[in-house]
Design goal:
By secondary structure, the protein is α+β, with helices and mostly antiparallel strands. Helix content is 22%, strand content 30%. β4, α2 (113-118) and β5 form a beta-alpha-beta unit.
Amino acid sequence: MEEKKKAKSNIALHIITPIMLSVTCAGITIAAAIKPADKIKTYTNIAFMDSLKSDPLNEDSGLVIKDNDINMDYSGETSETGEPDRPDFGELYAIVSTKSLGINVPIYWGTTTELLERGACQSSSSVVFGADGNSVISAHVDTYFADLNNIQKGDIVDIYTNYGKFTYTVTELIEFSSKDKKYIVPSEDSKLTIYTCKRDLLGASDRRIGAVCELTKKQFYSTKEGE
């Protein structure tokens, strides 16, 4: 009798084991497929300026992108006062440069997936460079702002436009949740907030890293590019 019970137990074990192995392998395969998909979402979705984004166009209506040549070698007269130019949505109107990171990145006005593939994007709800308030820019961590985590307090960040050059000094290193808007909302003091997603090799991250920079020098050009 006891031998029959053992035989039945062995038969059940032989049947269940392959089933369990198949289920386990299927689970691993599904997980492996999901992770790359999550990784792609990290870099294709606009994870930065969800609440600040004010795109007058949807992606199906046709975004007009204007690529300007930004003069980084202006040698004429400058003034501390002047009038900044407000760009059109989708217009390349500035370059962010910092020697500490070795970058010169184009800045587009507004935020869309296509613009983020071309450079950094400035929220059209923030102020243009040279105006009083908070200028907010971001870019993908896997491309243009890949080394932003290396920025340090005291680093100099220069913004070049065709109407002036604006110099900022990093005063605060920041890390915040994507739901936390305290660093990217309008402000009365003139500053630059620059940030990107915190790198996460396991999938999408809801953390942001970057820096707040104080405006330390304004140089409006006496003759604007193209005049």
